Amino acid sequence: MKTKTSLPFHSSMHLFGWWQWLRASAAHAAMLVALATAAGGTNVVDVGPPPSGNTQQVTSLDQIPEGLAKSDWSSIRAAYETGRHAFQPIDGGWQARNLGQQWTTRFDGRGFVTEPQGGGWQWGLELKSYGFAGQERAISGQPAVKAAGQRLSYQWDAAVQEWFVNDQRGLEHGFVVKERPSGAVGTELQFDLAVRGSLKPQISADAQGVQFQDVQGATVLTYAGLKVWDADGKFLPSHFVATEAGVRLLVDERDARYPLTIDPIAQQAYLKASNTEYYDKFGFSVSVSGDTVVVGAPWEDSSTTGVNTTPNNSVYDAGAAYVFVRNSSTWSQQAYLKASNAGGG
Asked: What is the pTM of this model?
């Protein structure tokens, strides 16, 4: 958890640096976005000092900026959280940051690997096969990958989709089984998952979760909250067992009506609930101009520069600004703005 002592106001910052962001009007920021996008979207265009004026400071998360209704501000904050947890394309796949869990997860089209902000361990899972004993279907080839906002899915075949949701709770990881695989009635449907990284699985006493431990035997993260239900919403008995390569998830699907949904979630074991908005200071500065709102976050932690780059969480207190636009009654994030010389405070 960060300790904050001062805000990163540095007169040496230029080209739409923090002092400009915190004074800029929403209309001026929107113009910068348009110019930068027209120029290729990789560098922020400097069009001179912004007009003076209507930027306001929000001193608490409960304060509603002038010119916005409570529902507007709630919607903007929700859009901000969605943007921060969204899946971003990278070389070789996708990645998703999770500030609440303090980790980044990368997806390579076979499985995923999670690494915490401070390093020290890696962990991930990869589906190797599914089906009934003796008639398992081995996973091979590349799935059809679809990413939209906080959700990413691997469509392995016509029957099975593996999916992920990245939000403040952690990484939700599940499967949808559209139709019953071939196999004898009365046996359990199984999913074999190989473990990636340095952590070792330990099945919980009730077999409803898995604790992943480091070399000292300390639990680093939990993979728990296992629930399975069918098309009628009926919950089905399910549990984990250990295997030589990792873990096996077993479902008693007798009398179930397909499709089935399988839904555990991964979380760091030692983290307490935290308000990640506070530690970025999202809302420290707000400028409202009609249906456009610019929000400053002076403690945002990415070293990237320009417009709509992929955050990397690698430099403390570099700062960022966010542009939100209202369409009818819905607010959405239009741009994520970084100074051309973003650096820590």
From this structure: 0.68
